[in-house]
């Protein structure tokens, strides 16, 4: 998947992954994709809900060695 921007939110606790994601999304244009890496277990539900409420599309979520990887397309 071709990403436009990468955000490393590993080691950050709630609410910082959301705060940083919101800031990064503001720098993107509609249709561009943000890849986020986070280790906070709550990030999975938080980012899923945040993407939906913000009109963005959560394209994919994976977990590798305790790191959650999200791909969100800006709405």
Please give a structural write-up.
The structure is a single chain. With 75 residues, the protein is α+β, with helices and mostly antiparallel strands. The protein has a single domain, classed as Translation Initiation Factor IF3. It contains two helices and four strands; from the N terminus they run βαβαββ. The protein has helices spanning 16-26, 43-53; strands at 5-9, 33-38, 57-64, 67-73. Strands 1-2-4-3 form a four-stranded mixed β-sheet, covered by helices on one side. The longest helix is centred in the N-terminal third of the chain and has 11 residues, at 16-26. The radius of gyration is 11 Å and the shape is globular.
Topology:
Layout: E1 5-9, H1 16-26, E2 33-38, H2 43-53, E3 57-64, E4 67-73
Query: Would you identify the regions where 5 or more consecutive residues have pLDDT less than 50?
Result: none
For this structure, what is the CATH homologous superfamily?
TusA-like domain
How do the SSEs run, as a string of H and E? EHEHEE
Q: With helices defined by DSSP (H or I, 4 residues minimum), what is the helix count?
A: 2
- Helix proportion: 25-40%
Please compute the radius of gyration using only Cα atoms: 11 Å
Q: What overall geometry do the principal axes of the alpha carbons give?
A: globular
CATH topology: Translation Initiation Factor IF3
Name the beta content range: 25-35%
User: How many domains comprise the coordinates?
Assistant: 1
**CATH architecture descriptor name:** 2-Layer Sandwich
Largest sheet: 4 strands, mixed
Overall mean pLDDT = 96
Spatial order of the strands in the main sheet?
Answer: 1-2-4-3
InterPro entries: TusA-like, TusA-like_sf
Family: Belongs to the sulfur carrier protein TusA family.
Protein name: Sulfurtransferase TusA family protein
Domain UPF0033: 7-31
């Amino acid at each position: 998947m071709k990403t436009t921007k990468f955000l490393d939110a590993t080691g950050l606790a709630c609410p910082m992954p959301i705060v940083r994601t919101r800031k990064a999304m503001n720098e993107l244009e509609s249709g561009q994709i943000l890849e986020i890496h986070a280790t906070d277990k709550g990030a999975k539900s938080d980012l899923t809900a945040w993407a939906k409420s913000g009109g963005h599309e959560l394209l994919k979520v994976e977990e590798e060695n305790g790191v959650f990887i999200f791909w969100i397309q800006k709405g």
